[in-house]
Design goal:
With 188 residues, the protein is mainly α. Among the domains are: 36 residues, no CATH class; 52 residues; 33 residues, no CATH class. It contains 7 helices and no strands. Helix 4 crosses helix 5. The N terminus is likely disordered. One of its GO terms (biological process) is mitochondrial translation. Its main location: mitochondrion. One of its GO terms (cellular component) is ribosome.
C-alpha cells in the first residue's frame, strides 16, 4: 500500500470556518425603538452572518461538509473532476478559436475578391474614419441648436446604432403615443 493512498484516506476536507465574525457595527448605535422601519432596513442591509440554520435561498447549508464528502469522497476524485473540467474548457476554447479563424479567412477572401473586382469599393471599405470628425453641414447645424441638442449630435457616432432610438416594448407607454416626436436630424 502506497503512502499517498494512506494520506488521502486519512485526509478530510475541512469545511468549517476557523473563526466566525459577527457584524456588530450595524447595531452599535442605539436607535429609538419607536420606528420599526429603520430596524427592518438595517436587518436587510446588514444581515447577521452567524450561521446556525440553513438559509431559505439555499446559499448556506449546515450539512455542506457531509454532502461534499459524500459526493467527492477522495482528493483523487476531486482532481480528476477538475482536470476533466479544464480539458472540456480547452476543447470549447479550441472550437471557438477554429470558428473565428474560419470566419476571418472567409472575410479575407471576400476582401481580396472585392479588391480584384472594384478598387474604389475596396478603398471605401478600408478607409479609416475619425468618428469624432464633423462635416461642415454638421458644424453649421450645431451652431443653430440648443445645448442639449448639440450634446445629442456630438454623442452620436457615425455608423453606430442611434442612442436616442426608443427600446421596443410589448406594452404601450402610460402616456400614450407621442405624435409630435421626430428623430434628431443628422446631416451626413
Amino acid at each position: 500500500m502506497s503512502t499517498s493512498l494512506l494520506t488521502c484516506s486519512q485526509l478530510r476536507l475541512s469545511v468549517r470556518p476557523e473563526k466566525i465574525l459577527t457584524r456588530s457595527y450595524a447595531a452599535a448605535r442605539g436607535e429609538a425603538a419607536g420606528d420599526p422601519k429603520k430596524e427592518i432596513i438595517r436587518k436587510t442591509l446588514y444581515p447577521s452572518n452567524i450561521r446556525n440554520t440553513a438559509t431559505p435561498t439555499g446559499t448556506w447549508r449546515p450539512d455542506v461538509g457531509r454532502a461534499l464528502q459524500h459526493a467527492i469522497p477522495s482528493v483523487q476524485a476531486h482532481d480528476t473532476i477538475e482536470r476533466a473540467w479544464l480539458l472540456h474548457k480547452r476543447h470549447v476554447r479550441k472550437q471557438r478559436e477554429a470558428e473565428l479563424a474560419r470566419k476571418f479567412e472567409c472575410m479575407r477572401k471576400a476582401m481580396e475578391e472585392l479588391e480584384r473586382v472594384d478598387k474604389t469599393l475596396y478603398m471605401g471599405a478600408n478607409k479609416e474614419e475619425d468618428p469624432r470628425a464633423r462635416s461642415t453641414a454638421e458644424v453649421k447645424l450645431s451652431r443653430s441648436l440648443k445645448t442639449s441638442e448639440v450634446r445629442t449630435l456630438e454623442a452620436r457616432i457615425r455608423g453606430l446604432f442611434p442612442r436616442e432610438l426608443r427600446i421596443p416594448t410589448d406594452t404601450p407607454s402610460k402616456s400614450g403615443w407621442n405624435y409630435d416626436w421626430k428623430p434628431f436630424p443628422r446631416p451626413l
